[in-house]
Amino acid sequence: MRRAEEAEEFEELRPLLFSIAYRILGSVSEAEDAVQETWLRYRLSATTPVSTRAYLSATVTRIAIDVLRSARVRREEYVGPWLPEPLLADPYQDPERSAELAESLSTAALLLLERLSPLERAVFVLREVFAFGFPEIATAVGRSEAACRQLAVRARRHMDAGRPRFEADRHEREQLAERFFAALHEGAVEDLRELLAADVSLVGDSGGKAPQLGRAVAGADAVAGVLVWYRGRLARAGVGWEVCEVNGQPGAVFRDREGRVLNTWALDVLDGRIRTIRSVANPDKLGHMGPVADAWALARAADLPAGRSPGRGRAGGGRRRRA
């Protein structure tokens, strides 16, 4: 009976545990592994915790910190730009902290978190995103409450210094994304240019395991031109997309004719314009979304130059559209 109660309680807390781990790690697969390891430790524990929520949150945080420390070594050797694994929906819902949860899920925020030390990152996530008290945080990270307060101050200072201010509300972002992808569908370079900030950048993460743009592209003229040029090649290969949220921001999932995931795009919006387009094409980062397309075969079908291709994407719901 006790085991059944433990399992039920754990499943109720799983969304919270995953959400903590994902924000610390920026990886869906690593976060899922951290949650599973937390469950194993919980089952093997000989004592019953006073607060299951506090115990499991502390456990998944410690596991995630250890994973992050080793992951950072691998990321230093990563081929090309590194972006977080795209997440279509946060399983943890808390109406009282919906704004903090949404902001902390964005790709821009996750990249800012990458600048923090593992301990600063964990403290920031627990305190600023999930509103844990400092006694709980101290237990989770193995530091004194005073040290955790200092870590929180430093982390908040770093985040505030680099955080862009996304002023558009959800409806405005969705409308801008609809216009953007409609212009992309039509291959309307002037319409695309009008929606892009003057200093817009297009950044791709393939990890060297899929074709993509050889380097980041910057400037409205250059990005609009690249998007239209590649849109034609994607159409030739039968690639379509679904407009949807990616990490809480406007975006799309790109798929081949069989519906296999090719990549994801996430759009950062500022002052009514698209500031950054981030594309994740590394197949290792897309497997949690379903079957992954053969990007190299599609590049050949699209007649793309070797080593270059547009950002491809994957996303959850939304309307399917052929390029």
From TrEMBL:
Family matches, as InterPro entries: ECF_Sigma-70_Domain, NTF2-like_dom_sf, RNA_pol_sigma-70_dom, RNA_pol_sigma-70_ECF, RNA_pol_sigma70_r2, RNA_pol_sigma70_r4_t2, RNA_pol_sigma_r2, RNA_pol_sigma_r3/r4-like
Span of domain RNA polymerase sigma-70 region: 10-72
Keyword rRNA-binding belongs to the record: no
Keywords attached to this entry: Sigma factor, Transcription, Transcription regulation
Superkingdom of origin organism: Bacteria
UniProt xrefs under Gene3D superfamilies: 1.10.1740.10, 3.10.450.50, Winged helix-like DNA-binding domain superfamily/Winged helix DNA-binding domain
Domain RNA polymerase sigma factor 70 region 4 type: 110-159
Manganese among keywords: no
Family label: Belongs to the sigma-70 factor family. ECF subfamily.
Assembly: Interacts transiently with the RNA polymerase catalytic core formed by RpoA, RpoB, RpoC and RpoZ (2 alpha, 1 beta, 1 beta' and 1 omega subunit) to form the RNA polymerase holoenzyme that can initiate transcription.
Name of the featured protein: RNA polymerase sigma-70 factor
Organism whose genome encodes this protein: Kitasatospora cinereorecta
